[in-house]
Specification:
This protein is about 25% helix and about 25% strand. It has 11 helices and 20 strands.
Length: about 425
């Protein structure tokens, strides 16, 4: 049996299960059966040929050095070239350190051999690995040119060329690193506002996460082109079965904040999570406060719209929104990655009592986006970086962003609006 390009096979043959295992079953009645599995690899930890190879003798093609004669595999890290002049490309021997040309190395191919990394004499499965450097049909110049082009595309934000180059030229799996943010970098970037709300803020929103014994609240200020300022992060403890803590939440969401120019700002919208154990309480709390305070719940999946139409399908007959939270997280992480002040940049205060501690930033960056295969289909999903990590700050920021989008306000200064005051920022870790 010959199975070619197995990494492209669907995870299941209809409802019958794994297609490769089904094919193996067809061989059970043959005493002299032999199967050959071949493929260009794809995604690390989701590649079928990688699994098959790891469970084999794992033999790599080794070629003798033209200078010292030592056998070695051909690896990309040993290729040396001048990107301005590709007329001569050398491969540096990993044993003697001498560089020789493509022609010199290929003249010794007939003396090469496969050397197993897992030399189990009882193994019935032999596995062989070859990349394009070991091919007599591919010139090294073509491989180098492909690498240079892939690098240029990466600078533009496109990794697809490098992914294809890694799979097809180096015969290696591509590791999807996913999107993740370093919390310490954000914490050290925090700045001293010297006021409750900076002048650049046009509107305020809040996201409220509901837990069994507390509310966690993130108040966010929004300026032009989605530039944002963290204003206050509060953890409000209490028994959510009692009226007292709900009254405290109402009072907090009703307060007035003072901008640096003296203007008084109230929350334009607040979104509160109703997906926990207090769904009815959240709905009853929001109903008399509508449309200032909105009940929401999250739903995973990038196929779910971030801001859908409101629904009244609940006992309280209160308008509620089911958010596509994965899209919101993607939006937030891309904003956190913006390095220069202006559009989409996220400011955080170092001012005492604002609540933006090191623990907050760990929670804000608690998840990462990774690729997983479900029902044979590759898709990106958000997962916690480590088990037990708290992600409430990320959820709160997501709900505050949703509150802004639901409100439909225009993030642009009108004539006469005070322009943001330029000031020297005091940044953590960098002095004053």
């Amino acid at each position: 049996m010959l199975a070619d390009e197995v990494d492209r096979y669907p995870a299941s043959a209809g409802n019958e299960g794994d297609s490769l295992l089904l094919a193996y079953k067809r061989l059970t009645t043959y005493w002299n059966k032999k199967s050959v599995i071949v493929s260009t690899p794809t995604i690390k930890e989701a590649s079928r040929i990688e699994t098959e190879y790891e469970n084999s003798t794992r033999e790599t093609w080794n070629v003798p050095c033209p200078s010292c004669g030592e056998l070695q595999p051909l690896e990309w890290g040993q290729v040396k070239y001048d990107r301005e002049d590709l007329s001569e490309i050398n491969y540096i021997c990993g044993k003697c350190g001498v560089g020789d040309t493509e022609i010199a190395w290929k003249e010794h191919y007939t003396s090469g051999k496969f050397i197993p990394q897992n030399p189990d004499p009882d193994s019935t499965v032999r596995g062989f690995y070859l990349n394009s450097l070991a091919s007599l049909f591919v010139e090294w110049r073509d491989i180098v040119e492909g690498f240079i082009k892939a690098n240029e595309e990466i600078k533009k934000g496109n990794v697809e060329f490098m992914k294809v180059w890694t799979n097809t030229e180096m015969a290696q799996t591509w590791e999807e690193k996913g999107h993740e943010i370093d919390p310490e970098t954000l914490y050290n970037r925090s700045e001293e506002y010297g006021c409750e709300v900076p002048n650049g803020v046009l509107y305020l929103t809040a996201g409220v996460d509901t837990q069994d014994n507390r509310f966690e609240i993130d108040v966010v200020g929004w300026g032009e082109y989605h530039e944002s300022w963290g204003i206050k992060y509060v953890i409000m403890y209490g028994d959510l079965k009692q009226k007292k803590v709900w009254d405290e939440l109402k009072q907090f969401l009703s307060q007035t904040f003072t901008r640096e120019d003296g203007a008084k700002l109230k929350l334009t919208r607040a979104c509160i999570d109703m997906g926990g154990h207090f769904t009815n309480e959240v709905l009853n709390f929001c109903k008399p406060l509508f449309p200032s305070v909105l009940p929401i719940r999250g739903r995973d999946g990038f196929d779910v719209p971030y801001i859908p139409r409101a629904s009244k399908n609940n006992r309280a007959d209160t308008p509620m929104w089911t958010l596509g939270v994965d899209s919101g997280k993607d939006w937030i992480y891309k904003s956190l990655d913006v390095k220069d002040e202006g559009a989409n940049f996220c400011h955080f205060p170092s001012d005492k009592g604002t609540g933006y501690t090191e623990e907050y930033f760990k929670g804000l960056t608690a998840e990462k986006m990774v690729m997983r295969y479900k029902r044979g289909k590759a898709q990106f999903v958000w997962e916690l970086k480590s088990k037990g990590t708290r992600n409430e700050p990320l959820d709160c920021r997501n709900y505050a962003l949703a509150a802004l989008e639901i409100s439909g306000v225009i993030l642009k200064k009108s004539e006469g609006t005070l322009a943001p005051k330029k000031r020297n920022r005091s940044v953590r870790g960098q002095g004053v």
